[in-house]
Amino acid sequence: MSIYDTDVDHVVGSVNDAAQELYDELLTTGYSLIFEDVIKVFKNAIKEYVGWSGRLLTQTPQGLADVKKPLLVINENTVLSVTDWLIVKPVVMAHCDLVQAKRMEGAQGLGVNPTGMSSSEARTLYSDAVLKMQKESFQCEPFTVDTPQNDRGLDVFFTSNMME
Fold it and tell me: Which of 3, 28, 119, 156 is the least buried, fewest Cβ under 10 Å from its Cβ?
């Protein structure tokens, strides 16, 4: 994920492009979401993804060059790589399903017969998609732990580290 399209090799496009494509698909399948809803779902999913992946999109706030902590910038122009999109897409789809299910249940009070899944089913799918995203997006540099080769060395190793 990047705020500049030159930072990644293969891109899906901007958040706006991906959201428009998904919105067009949802619109033709009877969803009641509007484009702004889809953009909001995208931004929320990407924020969660960035939090779990450790890949922060950073940009120094204008006029604040001495700021020590970078600003997390996710907007409609944020560029999604193909890899990022493949990880985020199930969460975005499940969240859209959840919003639609809640709207259908809310419309029952107006006499509308609900169609599609219930909000509890959609909530389960959304929770599962978020857990899967957390696992797929987590990144950690490989590391090794060196330990002494004999049993006596292990005793010394663990007791000396506990005293620090």
Answer: 28
Q: Give me 116's structure tokens.
A: 């599609």
DSSP secondary structure string for all residues of 46-112: HHHHHHHH----EEPPTT-TT-SSPEE---TTPEEEHHHHHHHHHHHHHHHHHHHHHHHHHHGGGTP
pLDDT in tens, 60-113: 445 555 555 556 778 888 888 888 888 999 999 999 999 999 999 988 888 888
Mean pLDDT of the chain: 79
Please give the angle made by the CA atoms of 59, 65 and 69, to the nearest 5 degrees.
Answer: 55
10 Å CB burial of residue 98 (0-12, 13-18, 19+) is: buried
